[in-house]
Amino acid sequence: MKITDLLWILAYPVYQLIGTLRHEASHALAAVLEGARITEFVFWPTRGYWGYVIWEGPVTSATLGAPYVCDLLTFGLFFVLCMAGRFERRWVWLNAVVLGMLSPLINSVYNYWGGLHGPNDVGKLLESLPAIYVHAYFWFTMGFYLVGLVLVFKWSRTARDKRDGVGTISEGI
Prior knowledge:
Layout lengths: L11 H22 L3 E6 L9 E5 L4 H24 L5 H28 L3 H8 L2 H25 L1 H8 L9
Antiparallel strand pairs: 1-2
Helix pairs in contact: 1-2, 1-3, 2-3, 2-5, 3-4, 3-5, 5-6
């Protein structure tokens, strides 16, 4: 990791909007698949929330848990992409890691922690499902995400090429 990589932290608001869009769209898709009608869809900070979806229809464990399944699928897809792909520009690779791998980890940690202390999605899952299953899922996926991030930064083609001086990886932002 280079010091210039840290400049991408200035893009945090964009990353947050994309992550919130993925989270809320997962709720909405699951709700629609269960026959609900979406009445409001917001993926920017408002009303004290990062975003929210309101629908007419049932609130099930599937609609509550959809963002965390989506996180796992997103992480898996980007893990494969970031491990196997050869990125000509380091900034493209770094943004793929942040949006596809780091964002699901942050979403899961943030909402899991919040669910332990309040009535968010995870808190409602803890009330509606056996708590051991919810805790096991989050601890497993968060550990999986951490291991995956270490592997990508240490062993991906882009990281190895950079370390070995192979390829034409552009260093500029």
